[in-house]
Amino acid sequence: MLTLGIDSSPKLSFQAFNALRDIIYARSGIFFTDNKRYLLETRLSRRLEQRSLKTFEDYVLFLSHDTGRENELNELINTIVINETSFFRDQMQLDAFGNGVVPGIIDRKSKEGDRSLKIWCSACSTGEEPFTLAIMLLEKGLHLKGWSVDILGSDVSAVVLKTAESAVYEKYSLRNMPEPYLRKYFSDAGDAYRLNRTVHDLVRFKRINLMDSLQTRQNRGMDVVFCRNVLIYFDDASKRKAIGHLYDSLARGGYLFLGFSETLHNITRLFRPVSFERSVVYQKI
Ligand SMILES: C[S@@+](CC[C@H](N)C(=O)[O-])C[C@H]1O[C@@H](n2cnc3c(N)ncnc32)[C@H](O)[C@@H]1O
User: Using a 6 Å cutoff on CB, does residue 29 contact ligand 1?
Assistant: First the structure.
């Protein structure tokens, strides 16, 4: 039921909030707790404006029955996700990747005569994370030693992937980037910076929803999977689903990186926590 406040902007009733929460959850695994009702109201009011709808109840109907619902569902998800990221985010974890995980994999695979490295950044937002890994691997000179490196960057949001594919970044995204890398791997693009082709060519992007077993199933035999700073938006059921999909995508002995504040505690016992310096990484048993 509606619902207009004194300022006449549409108000999100409990019923409409519950309906929208269910739609968002089914689509992305992201769960909005009751205290996020106002946040959702603010974020989604622009969607109503764009669709010339007057109430959130109309919006729920649109998302449920309109022929344009598929496009709008994508717009909805693009509007509510948090895309915060940057190059070289959480250096300690990257140290674990560069100094612990990668040398171990290279050592083992070299002995097996396999010179391929497959990495998946599974909620990569605007691309800074997979491009950071590409720069780190270029610095190791793997490509010069006959290794084939394949880095997949994926996200549920098509909008962020467009930015990733353009590979042009504002200074803010580069705030943690070591200065020599900026000179080595970027060129000026007006007020922004364009990533060089050498880095770009190591990374491909694809829209993948971590909740979707058909989409995630296409990725197999990964040596390393990054899934940082997204589980925090999921409830336990969604976390289990996403982690199950990532488990299936990893090769035996492969490694999973979660965000600093994220853990597999109470989610699964299928991984072995391994400490590298001051970071914990999860290894598929
Ligand atoms: C805060 S960003 C984290 C980016 C990067 N991993 C990092 O740590 O810097 C979270 C990303 O997760 C994505 N995301 C949310 N739900 C998702 C889902 N169900 N499947 C795939 N990506 C999802 C969002 O679109 C957003 O770009």
Answer: yes
Tens-place pLDDT, residues 32-51: 999 999 999 999 999 999 99
For the chain, the domain total comes to 2
Task: Using the mean position of ligand 1's atoms as its centre, give its distance from the Cα of residue 240 in Å.
Answer: 16
Range of the domain at 24: 14-80
CA atoms within 13 A on the CB side of 6: 0
Q: Are residues 56 and 191 in the same domain?
A: no
Positive or negative, the CA dihedral 43, 35, 14, 78 is positive
Please give the C-alpha separations between residue 3 and each of 24, 32, 33, 55, 73, in angstroms, as whole numbers: 22, 21, 21, 8, 23
Contact 209 CB / ligand 1 (< 6 Å): yes
CATH code of residue 278: 3.40.50.150
* Ligand 1 in reach of 129 Cβ (< 6 A): yes
For residue 113, the Cα-to-chain-centroid distance in whole angstroms is 32
**Which tens digits make up the pLDDT trace of 105-139?**
999 999 999 999 999 999 999 999 999 999 999 99
CA of 78, closest atom in ligand 1: 25
Q: Which of 122, 274, 87 is nearest to 193 (CA)?
A: 87
Q: In this structure, is residue 63 part of a structural domain?
A: yes
173 and 42 both lie in a single domain: no
Residue 58 Cα, ligand 1 centroid: separation in angstroms?
Answer: 28
Asked if residue 6 is part of any domain, the answer here is no
pTM value > 0.85? yes
Distance between Cα 131 and ligand 1 center (Å): 15
Please name the residue whose Cα sits nearest to atom 5 of ligand 1: 124
